[in-house]
Amino acid sequence: MTGDQPIIHCSSSCKPHLYLILSFQCDTIQNHPLNHLNPHPKMADQHSTTTSSTIDPYEALMVVHDPDHDTLTRNLPVLITNATDDPNSKDILLNAQHNTWIRIFKPTVQDLPATNKLPVIIYYHGGGFVLCSTFWTIYHEYCKSKATTLSAIVASVEYRLAPESRLPAAYDDAVDALNWVKHQASGGKPSEPWLRDYADFSNCYIMGESAGGNIAYNVSLRASELDLGPVNISGVILNQPFMGGIERTDSELRLINDKILSLPVSDLMWELSLPIGSNRNHPYCNLLINEDEESLRKKCGFIKKCLVIGCDGDPLIDRQVEFVKLLEGKGVKVETFMQEGGYHGMVYFEPKELEIMLERVKDFILSGASRL
To answer: Which end is more exposed in the chain, N or C (fewer Cβ atoms within 10 Å of the end residue's Cβ)?
Structure first.
């Protein structure tokens, strides 16, 4: 791609891996394009548990749901970046049937070590399971910064979106990505040169943000039952993981009309992504609910250590705090980085916050490398 990047309007006719959300080009939350939302007179009828909210989630997300075919028309204008326009990124087809991909990032050439191998970060983007793509510019630039700042190989996974592919489809795609990394570590063909030449497969991390944080946690539980061979998962990094439940928390009610993740928007995302007929106490959504405590303890044993990042300006903070307690109760070594203020997804809008977050992640990774 040359010159200015095109603005693309995605609809239900787009290929699944091009379902993108608006690439926000604002420096502060005051300029966020979702700040000017119009009330919908039927809001209370559609979401009886959020009657005090004035936000119509369909208008906020600029989507139209076709219930007959369970498809979503996504009308947000977007900016995308092609991997071919960046010498430090490339796209790898993951699953042709599902049209899933991995976009790999490496540090710039001058930042590559002469001898030492680089940690590998297997990364899952956010978007409430229904929006976003590793190909849109804001995620591309974020992963590019992450690869350089952390001196790591970043494998950003393009998973299937709901409602066209409801959960657990995204979890299945996440497992495919882990198996692909194992295939590379085992010398499988075709061999990916960047991983072959630069990757330290003994020092891999699973990372996700928002819905991607939910995916990262769930794929870590699944990985406990996989033979990953030479791949060693040194830790799991969850930035503002997306979760929910039928009973409202204090932070959700306090931030019911949040400009990024209002309660109606959150509810709609779960309605579109959970298996049909499920409610928000489904274990995909309510991570605090599990039917088999002993099984969960064994699966959590796979997680050597976990970094959970959050802030009290995020409507999800109360759930995230309880989630940390759950992990600790299952024997997981948990590190937390909880800030005052802030908001959901702030690392994409605030360069200073991104810098602070990546430095904390860097410390987490380096502490793992020191024990290898």
So the answer is: C
Q: How much is the pLDDT for 219?
A: 98
Q: What is the pLDDT of residues 4-21, one digit of tens each?
A: 333 333 433 333 333 333
Mean pLDDT of 276-292: 94
Q: Is the pLDDT of residue 281 over 90?
A: yes
Contact between 267 and 49 under an 8 Å Cβ cutoff? The reply is yes
Q: Cα separation of 248 and 266, whole Å? A: 12
Catalytic, out of 200, 258, 314, 318: 314
For residue 344, which of 262, 236, 249 has the smallest C-alpha distance?
262
Note if 314 is an active site residue.
yes
Cα 121 to chain centroid, rounded = 13
- Looking at residue 112, its amino acid is L
Question: Tokens 């039917």 identify what position?
Answer: 291
> Phi first, then psi: what are they for 100, rounded to 5°?
-105, 155
| CA dist list (Å): 299 to 7, 15, 159, 221, 315 | 43, 35, 23, 5, 28
User: Is the alpha carbon torsion for 101, 107, 110, 112 positive or negative?
Assistant: negative
**What's the sign of the alpha-carbon dihedral 165, 98, 303, 125?**
negative
**Token pair of 107, please?**
């540090």
Averaged confidence pLDDT in the chain? 87
Residue 330: how many other CB atoms lie within 10 Å: 18
Spatial separation of the C-alpha atoms in residues 21 and 8, rounded to whole Å? 10
Q: What is the pLDDT of residues 23-51, one digit of tens each?
A: 232 333 333 333 322 222 222 233 334 44
DSSP codes, 225-290: TS--TT--EEEEEEES-----SSPPHHHHHTTT-SSS-HHHHHHHHHHHSPTT--TTSTTT-TT--
The pTM (predicted TM-score) of the whole model is 0.87
Q: Which two tokens stand for residue 348?
A: 């994409």
pLDDT, tens digit, 9 for 90 and up, residues 172-215: 999 999 999 999 999 999 999 999 999 999 999 999 999 999 99
For residue 162, the tally of other CB atoms under 10 A from its CB is 24
